[in-house]
Amino acid sequence: MSGRTHTQRFRLRKDSVPAARRHVEVTLRDWKLGEVAEVAALVVSELATNAVVHAKGIGEFFELALRRRDGVLVVEVSDSCRWRMPEISKPEPGPNDITGRGLLIVDAIAQAWGVRPRDEGKTVWVRLDLQGPDRQLPAGGGGSR
Q1: Which of 1, 40, 117, 131: CA 20 to 30 A from 70?
Q2: Averaged pLDDT, groups of 10, the chain, 145 residues long
Q3: Alpha-carbon distance 53 to 60, whole Å?
């Protein structure tokens, strides 16, 4: 299959995070990519949560795009907040911290990820290898590549 693309908008609300997660799972099963659905849903959950927390009040929506190309799934979450570009927390969160792990998780399971500015906001993109030997979640929800 040469490639597929799907884009969906969600309101910047907490209840949109599980809706976006379910949307990814259903779309990837339809694309016969069920083996990567759980990993992609986790990535979307983390990125959508960041959009809801950091872009709320700036825009009304975030956009989720899925692109399958040449053995890679690209997941993109775009929002209207350009002032806060995501980055991995330094120092890493401690055992009692309740935030700051999302991009650490994304970094642990992604082939690559990054951020690009848009005219109004930013897009966080993540590449997941569809041809890797094991696309399972790392033990404990995180881990090294």
Answers
A1: 117
A2: 84 96 97 94 94 82 94 94 66 63 82 90 93 52 37
A3: 12
Q: Which residue has the tokens 């795009």?
A: 65
Residue pair 66/27 in contact (Cβ under 8 Å)? The answer is: yes
Walk across the sheet containing 72-79 and list its strands: 3-11, 61-69, 72-79, 121-129, 112-118
CA dihedral 42→39→136→1, nearest 10 degrees, is: 180
3-class SS of residue 76 = strand
User: Could you identify the residue written with the tokens 């690009």?
Assistant: 116
Name all domains of the chain by residue range, CATH numbers in brackets: 3-138 (3.30.565.10)
**34: its two tokens:** 């069920």
